[in-house]
Description:
Layout: H1 13-31, H2 41-54, H3 75-86, H4 90-116, H5 118-130, H6 132-136, H7 148-163, H8 175-194, H9 202-211, H10 218-245, H11 249-258, H12 268-278, H13 283-286, H14 291-297, H15 305-320, H16 328-341, H17 358-375, H18 380-410, H19 422-431, E1 437-441, H20 451-459, E2 466-470, E3 475-478, E4 483-487, E5 506-508, E6 517-522, E7 534-541, E8 545-553, E9 556-563, E10 573-580, E11 583-591, E12 603-609, E13 618-626, E14 635-637, E15 640-641, E16 647-649, E17 652-655
Amino acid sequence: MPVFSMRVHNITRRDWLTLLLILFVAGLLRLGQPGIVEFFHDEAMLSSLAQDMVDGKHFPLTGINSSTGIPNPPINVYIMALPYAISSDPQVATIFVMLLNVLGVGLLWLIAHRYFGKTTALIAGLTYAASPWAILYSRKIWAQDFHTPFLLLALFLGLYGFWEAPRRGEGRANRWQITAQALCLPTMLIGMQIHFAAWALVPMYMLLIVMRHRRVRWGALVASALLSALVLLPYGLGLAQTLQDDPTRVSAAAERSTATEGLSFDNASLEAVIALATGYGVETWVAPNQTEDMLAAVPPPALWWIIGGAALLGVGVLLWQASLRPLAPIVLIWALLPPLVLLPQWTPVYIHYFIASIPAYMLLAGISVAWLSRQVPLKQAGRAIILGAYLVILVTQGLWWRGALRYLDQNAIEPPGFSVPLHYLETIRTRLSRYNDVVVLSYGMSWSLHHESVVWPVMWHIQSKCVRTLVPDGYAVFPDGPFAVLKAPDAPNDPVRGLYTSDTPVIYPARPGETPYEVYTFDSAPAWSGPDITSIEPIRFDMGATLTGYALDGGTVYLEWQLADGRDDLNYQYSAQLFAAGERVGQYDTVFWQQRHWCAGDRLLTWGPISGDDTATELQVSLYRIGTGSQAGQFLNANVLDAAGAPSGQYAVIPLK
């Protein structure tokens, strides 16, 4: 094994000023106009889990589900609980993510300065600070947007701890180097748990250990293993619990991922690397259905190819220059292993899988520009010309990003592009903050499927005691007291038979060309405009709903319910069956209003089509869950309770008059 050595550069007072300049640029571009960010489905689900954790409702052992169906680790929930412990405002949590990524830019500068020199650090830091893709993936509550700072910290700890420590027997490692060796792997595992794609960088740690094995302190390695086990423990428990409930979850996800006509090779991952290294192609992510229009409004200069060329040249300089060659394996694994792993199409490739490698491309660009600045004639003047010309290119990237933000804020963006910016939602949140009860009219009510259903409970987490989502038909809720109704853009013109939208609304516009939000306010619940409800002796079910009335009218069955506080994790179906002379003559089955939207004291009406209402003599109503995982295929009925609260059957039986 050859002896690897390279110079370590100390930081002077002037270097700290350089770092402040880089952090200022990074902060200006990431923190500027913080309201022009997305707050959509994934951001809201992650925020919801973090808010529940802060409230003491749950200590999650898994996060939200990944696109494969496998639950994510809970570490991103734990991290996002930090800003939500300070404020329930998603804008504060968004700024927290931005600040983390500003620190990430500083960490790249620190790595580049200490091991590659001050010029490389200046160029790498500013290139990372101004990169449109790096900025885009630094600005919202999305797991992929905040794993990179932890990975950069882990890499610095690894280099400082393993690279700089003396060999065993040749000197004593200082306590900071030993601490760095112990913290490197658990810190890396924190970042890797935030998003699965970062696991492609595990070989970086393994290579550090192999290359510097004579510098490893075994006590630090044992401590590192114990700390790593603690970092992985919550997810290990959560995944075991998931597999106990649903033993096929992981295998089914693997089958879906590999269900192709056979393994093929594609250059999608290499195209992603080119885009990330140059800065081109952001419009394909934020405005995929109107890329030409966005490019016409904010055209990127052709000069950006120079950045990509610099990164490519950096690979050659890294391998050719003897003083840099010792770290070449680390940097090349960082930059190239993730895209190479995905050249075979064993899973769909998305550009955000390579976010953690963006700093590596910026570092390679810094290495090549620093090398070029030393090769030109005229000494200082030539060096200044090279560096100045490159910095002008970076200025164009910063200016382009500001123009892109204006475009995304002032133009309707078709799905799945950049969603309504957060500041539009914040305006509605502020104006309706005096209402304790809010009803949202939207296309769907599922927390895990429909974004309006999860966004608004997060937005009004503190101000409102209860936020409910109603779908266009089949359900109506009547809160006890004043409340506001928010009609979302995805709701039809007359949702819920126009019950909540008969008055003139207050309009809260989104971007020009987009359907606005509408707000209706009520001092008390509106009068039900449908058939009269026949009251019955209340029939309680053990899942918290009480049946209090019914109506049969024109082939439709109406049921009236009184609700308790809901539970987020249990959702039921309901069945209404009509009988005549002991035989079933009609039936209606559908999803009951999901428990996430229940509030104590609410009156609920449900309805749907049914036959046989003209001859029926008895109505039976039941509530049940469809089993999942190990209970798949089973119907789990809610019990009807008697006056003493004991189970007395699984159907409410109502004689018809």
